Amino acid sequence: MFTGIIEEKGTVKSIRETGEAIVMVIEAPGILTDVKLGDSIAVNGVCLTVTSFTDRTFSVDLMPETVRATSLKLLKNGSYVNLERAMAAGGRFGGHFVTGHVDGTGTIVSKRKEANAVYYDIQVSGELHKYMMLKGSVAVDGTSLTIFGTSDGTFTISIIPHTIEETIIGSRGPGDIVNIETDMLAKYIEQFLFHRLPADGDVSDKLTESFLKEHGF
After folding, report:
1. Which range (17-21, 49-53, 55-59) has the least confidence?
2. Does residue 81 sit in the same domain as residue 127?
3. CA 114, 109, 160: angle at the middle one, nearest 5?
């Protein structure tokens, strides 16, 4: 489990393809002070397992499904990546619930500066867009962000100077592909309701005040 608060920008040092899979070595001395084999580290929002490490680098294996479903396949030597260690028990929870299980990718379609903030419009599939809610949460390349607007197929985020400086989002622009993880709570609520709806889809006799109270809402 992660919170979407990026701890360090790492640098890809090497990428080795082994068939459909990839072995990646990332330099990130800041977060390796307490690393152990098998630890989880989110790389651009993708939860990966540390398979080896030194005092300055760590290695991860990318499975074929991860390569196909995320933007990690676009990385090359020298690329910067967002890094976050798994959430520690008792630590501050500064973002939102982020699992590191990316739902898909989006494409930045516009970037504009307003006062001290930078606004990005990101296009996603309809399957992802249905979870985008005004003032809701989304993880973009692993960064916990607030949704400031939605329209047909796109959502808008606003980035403050600190986030631009400390994460890779500041270097992104129109045409770039980003990893998207939608709000986990929204997905759970959808599944919870979907499996309890009538077969004909008529929710009028199911979604009532008493039903919601009975199920903890």
Report:
1. 17-21
2. no
3. 35
Domain of 64 in residue numbering reads as 8-85
* Residues paired with 179 in a beta bridge: 105
CATH of the domain at 188: 2.40.30.20
Q: In which element (H, E) is residue 69 found? A: helix 64-69
Task: Provide the token pair at 148.
Answer: 């400031």
Q: Is 178 exposed, middle or buried (0-12, 13-18, 19+ CB in 10 A)?
A: buried
Q: Flag whether 2 is in a domain.
A: no
Give the model's pLDDT for residue 89: 75
Strand 46-53 and strand 40-43: the pairing is: antiparallel
Residues 81 and 108 in one domain: no
Structural domains counted in the chain: 2
Q: Does the pLDDT value for residue 205 go beyond 70?
A: no
* Model confidence band, residue 49 (pLDDT cutoffs 50, 70, 90): very high
Measured distance CA(175)–CA(136) in Å, rounded: 24
Q: Are 181 and 120 members of one domain? A: yes
